[in-house]
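Support request, please re-run this one:
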Amino acid sequence: MRKILLIFFIGGFLGACNWISSKKGDSKLTSENIEMQLMKENTEKMKKIFFVLPSPIETSLLIKKTGIHFREDLLNSTDNLPSYSTSASRSIALGIYCADLSYAGLNEQYQISMEYINIATNLAESLGVLRTVEPAKIKLLEENLTNKELIVDIISEIYMESSEQLREQDRYTLASLMMISGWIESLYLATQSVKTDEVKHQILIKRVLEQKLSLESIKNVLSENQTDAVVEPIYKDILELERLFTKTIKSDNENLDFYERYDLIGFEQICLKIKDIRNYMVN
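Re-run finished. Output below.
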């Protein structure tokens, strides 16, 4: 009888162990599934923001085509660099300096471009982003600073590689902060350059107002981390910026006159809000 009870007890114990082990395995599997799902959702959101936001080069090119003169005073000062000591502030600074680099490079400001290339690559490396630019390209540029095509190529590599590698490392918040700050800086450069009473500047004003389409993707990305101390004020400002865009765009009818479609007082408020966001980001 004791043998039977002992066999029954051991069998029950082993069965319980298998059940517990199975539960742990299921729990681990469920946890991994949730993690994979979150990574997939983050990747999809980042893809949307990546394809929706114009690159800093696009905006800088449009500013130049409008005939607006380069203004060095609009660039984020290199004196601010030592204050960027956290991963979040460095990601934001990287996006901003990439936009400034695009603006300077496309306006043939070669010495400034070289300085900002070094700043951007150093910031990227401090974030653990490697292989942004081949050293041979930097050396080639140092020997021929007026090679605009090479400058544009290097700018693209720094920007694309940095955002891509941050996403590959599952550092989605940093990747989004970098891209959004680059977008804000590009808008800042554009809105600080235009004059609402200049007819030739209307195309640039239109392009700025077209960025309303980008706001939904930006909101979706930032909303995931809106309780973060760095993200929260940016998220709130983006909501306010969206409200100003809606107020300014009176009609989407392209057959209407420029002044019938857009409220220029509202546009001036957008310019001020973009300046506020940018100042928060650089300080």
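Residues 56-282 form one domain. Residues 34 and 137 are 42 Å apart (CA to CA).
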